[in-house]
Design goal:
The chain has 374 residues and is α/β, with parallel strands linked by helices. The chain is 30% helix and 30% strand. The strands form 5 sheets. Strands 1, 4, 5, 6, 7, 10, 11 and 12 form an 8-stranded mixed β-sheet that branches. Helix 3 crosses helix 5, helix 5 packs across helix 6 and helix 8 runs parallel beside helix 10. The longest helix is centred in the middle third of the chain and has 13 residues. The protein is elongated, with a radius of gyration of 24 Å.
């Protein structure tokens, strides 16, 4: 599945104070919206801005599609959705640019829920008593049972939310309201107290404190795999079919590089290896594409709140030559993992004609990855 992220940043944010809209004010040295965008790195990102802020958006120097907003938030989101038509998007996440502290765990929960529903959104159950007030006095109470505080990103199957927005006649509180008015079901997933929406001046101090309080949680894993040659006309390596006079033997497509990388991710998470999640004794995985395994490992990492810092794959063989295909392999892995290609290294070495790889009996691969708490 291809997931895109729409970051809405076209509002004026007057209640936050300052001499510029809140999404462009600095938080820990970066514009607020830059923090929000960073959480969705590796996805196709759309940044919706006010026409007066286009220069600010371009100055970020990020790989994002910049779209000008409309007269309302609903119109701005619709503009962004229309800009994604024809780009092969399956799922879309719509996030407030004024929520700079969104975690990878929340994003992962929203994406996972879209396997079962047209829409999903994070929220927190209301735990405080709710009052109605007038003229500074409490004039009544409101039952809090079944009430939730809505957050973003709100995720949807792309074609469904596009149709909902095209059919919606006017403004709405958020995209969940648009979806529900069209008859779509929206699943509630657990939100995060740190996922603040910066609204008032004091919110910036709270966000700064949260950022300073977050401790680095770094996980490192490694993987190693071997596959023997068999009859065939090419080998799958890191998502690319490389022409060769032989193929690789395996229960799946025998992509030795992707298997090593997948095991490295599982290792960093202390989640075993491919065989634990996709047993070779299960016939449904016979001939399966290895991208299924790698995508699962990345979904698991995000669900646990981790993002990929970087990974490095080394292929060990005499032939075929890897160098001419290394960039295509990096791009293929980046697409499967939904990360920036700059975070992925693919290289090769020989074993100087020693051992089974030197005798050209097969190919070995080793991989290392680093995951950081998002």
């Amino acid at each position: 599945m291809t997931t895109a992220a729409i970051i809405t940043a076209a509002g004026r944010g007057l209640r936050a104070g300052g001499d510029m809209p809140k999404q462009w004010q600095l938080l820990a040295g970066l514009p607020v919206v830059a923090h929000a965008l960073a959480a969705f790195e590796g996805m196709l990102r759309v940044l919706v801005v006010h026409p007066d802020d286009r220069a600010r958006a371009e100055a970020l120097g990020l790989d994002v599609l910049i779209v000008e907003g409309g007269a309302s938030r609903t119109a701005s989101v619709r503009n962004a959705l229309e800009a994604l038509v024809g780009r092969g998007v399956d799922h879309v996440l719509i996030h407030d640019g004024a929520r700079p502290l969104i975690s990878g765990a929340v994003i992962g929960r929203v994406i996972a829920a879209l396997d079962q529903s047209d829409g999903a959104a994070p929220a927190l159950a209301v735990s405080d008593a709710l009052w109605r007030g007038a003229a500074g006095l409490v004039v009544g109470t409101v039952p809090r049972d079944g009430l939730f505080r809505a957050q973003t990103p709100q995720g949807f199957r792309f074609e469904a939310i596009l149709a909902a927005h095209r059919a919606h006649p006017g403004e709405a509180a958020d995209d969940v309201a648009v979806a529900r008015s069209y008859g779509l079901d929206v699943v509630i997933v657990a939100g995060d107290e740190d996922n603040l929406k910066l609204t008032f001046p004091g919110d910036f101090a709270s966000a700064e404190a949260i950022l300073k309080g977050r401790q680095m949680d770094l996980r490192v894993g490694n993987g190693f795999d071997v596959h023997a040659f068999c009859d065939g006309d090419g080998v799958w390596l890191c998502g690319v079919k490389v022409p060769h006079g032989r193929a690789l033997l395996g229960h799946s497509d025998a992509d030795v590089g992707m298997h090593a990388l997948t095991d490295a991710i599982y290792g960093a998470l202390a989640e075993g290896d491919i065989g634990r999640h996709f047993p070779p004794s299960d016939p449904q995985w016979k001939g399966a594409e290895s991208k299924i395994f790698l995508a699962h490992a990345m979904r698991l990492a995000r669900a646990k709140g981790f993002a990929l810092a970087n990974c490095d794959v080394t292929l060990i063989c005499e032939r075929p030559k890897i160098g001419p295909h290394a960039e295509a392999m990096r791009e293929a892995l980046a697409a499967i993992m939904q990360v920036a290609v700059e975070r992925i290294s693919v290289k090769a070495t020989t074993s100087e004609r020693l051992g089974f790889t030197g005798r050209e009996e097969g190919i070995a691969a080793m991989a290392t990855c680093a995951l950081v708490r998002a």
